[in-house]
Amino acid sequence: MRKEALKLMVENKRWLSDKYWLSHFNYVDEVRQQFTLPERVYIHDVTLREAEQAPHVSLLPQEKVRIAKALDELGVYSVELAPFYSSYDKEATKELVKMRRNGELKAKVICLSRWMEQDVDLALECGADGVMIECVGNPWFCKQAWGIDEDGLVERLTRVVAYAKKNGIFTVAEPWDDYKAPLEFLERLCKSAVYEGGADHISISDTFGFTLPWAITYVVRKLKSWVPGIPIEHHGHNDFGLATMVMIAAVVGGAEVVQTSINATGERAGNAATEEVAMAIQLLLGVDTGIKLDRIYPTCQLVSELTKIPIASNKPIVGDNEFVYGSSMVAWMIEQLGKQGRPFTMMPFMPELIGRKGYEVILGRGAGGYTVRERLKKMGLSATKEQIREIVERVKEEAAIRKWSVPDFAFEEIVKEVLGE
User: Fold this and answer.
1) What is the pLDDT of residues 137-162, one digit of tens each?
2) What is the per-residue DSSP string for 77-109?
3) Rounded to whole angstroms, how far apart are CA atoms 402 and 287?
4) Contact assessment for residue 320 and residue 311, using Cβ atoms and an 8 Å cutoff
5) Could you give the residue ranges of the DSSP H alpha helices within 102-182?
């Protein structure tokens, strides 16, 4: 009966499945009426470029190819490289293009290009599927750094976009630091890139991660009104810890493409994390991204290993602590809920959803009678209530001394001493 009831709920509720139970408030009409969601969101993954803008990271061409294969298996729509960075990047770009032509790679290969015709030529030489033409979108910044005024900024971006389109390549105009630009200038810049330059997409960026989600939605909706029918992409960084929310806000405003990086790897505090953004869009907004969720965990582990940047234990989605429980009470509740078919009631989602194997219960300061009894069962042992109480106290003392959880060998020693075996 319980299984039938769960099946019925799963079939009719987008917030409930056999692997997660999310908030139904995400789907109430009063909330959804505030959204202008696209039918599909495409993940443009920038790991292959942004990773090497993270301090100390350096990847070989074959490592970039390996990451690209993993991203392709994950289901990203496109990957981004910058062949002008180095001969290594050019080599990696050409290899991925070759793989794509041979049917070994589904993800489109997009080249970042500075607002220079020679960078577009390099992307064409590599055989890329598209080009992302970047320039600063903040006119004050442009004037102080390059001595180029507003008219010159608009003219140059439009000229290079038009050059790319003349050469028959898919083109995204990508001004950055846009959220410091006057709104009327941003409108002028984007309209020129589209209507005079012929840009296929417009991408804007919260380059320093300081824009509130509500402001992101506001600006994206303005863009949609300025260049109707032109897909909007969004890029963003995590300096204020808002990068994932920024991408959600952009999608709520109607953006069709989000630019993200595995493990948030990128310059300074990093980018919006592919795994966080994909999970939030698919599970919380209910919009398809094409991402195979069960490939998230292995992909994040691979990128961490190759970039030599450890994943923080408390990182959302893929951090080690996400499915490690030290509280005996929580472990007991998970067990009880599991008997009802919903162990995920005490979890954000089942670990298997992202390709992770199960959850772990550790023994530490949160140890209790339940966790000790369960561990003893696995050892084929039993104990009296008094002995269990003593073991629990000894475990807590050991955890306090170690300033960490109690390893198996130490627990086994405690058990031998208490049980006299």
Assistant:
1) 999 999 999 999 999 999 999 999 99
2) SEEEE-TTS-HHHHHHHHHHHHHHHTTS--SEE
3) 46
4) yes
5) 117-126, 139-146, 150-166
Are 38 and 49 in contact by the 8 Å Cβ rule? The answer is no
**pLDDT band at residue 12 using 50, 70 and 90 as cut-offs:** low
Provide φ and ψ at 242, rounded to 5°: -110, 5
Judge whether 236 and 271 are in contact, CB under 8 Å: yes
Phi and psi (nearest 5°) for 381?
-120, 160
Please, are residues 187 and 220 in contact by the beta-carbon 8 Å criterion?
A: no
DSSP per-residue codes, 26-78:
GGSHHHHTT----SB-EEEE-HHHHGGGSTT----HHHHHHHHHHHHHHT-SE
pLDDT digits (tens, 9 = 90+) for 276-330: 999 999 999 999 999 999 999 999 999 999 999 999 999 999 999 998 888 888 8
CB 300 within 8 A of CB 320: no
pTM for the structure as a whole: 0.91
The token pair at 153 is 């900024």
What is the spatial distance between Cα 116 and Cα 133, in angstroms, rounded to a whole number?
8
Q: Cα–Cα distance between 201 and 129 in angstroms, integer?
A: 14
User: Residue 209, by phi and psi: left (phi above 0), alpha (psi -120 to 50) or beta?
Assistant: left
In this structure, the number of other CB atoms found within 10 A of the CB of residue 170 comes to: 17
**Measuring CA to CA, which residue among 186, 200, 252, 254 is closest to residue 230?**
200
Radius of gyration from C-alpha coordinates of the chain:
25
d(CA 262, CA 49): 11
Separation of first and last alpha carbons in the chain = 45
Which amino acid appears at position 279 of this protein? M
Of 299, 241, 296, the residue nearest 70 (C-alpha): 299
* Cα–Cα nearest to 347, from 109, 18, 4: 18
Give the model confidence (pLDDT) of 34-46 as tens digits: 999 999 999 999 9
The answer to whether residue 1 scores a pLDDT higher than 80 is no
Rounded Cα–Cα distance for residues 46 and 272 (Å): 10
Q: CA-CA distance, 52 to 271, in Å (whole number)? A: 12
Beta bridge partners of 377: none
Q: How many residues does the chain have?
A: 421
Instruction: For residue 84, give both structure tokens.
Output: 């002008």
Q: Are 406 and 364 in contact (CB under 8 A)?
A: yes
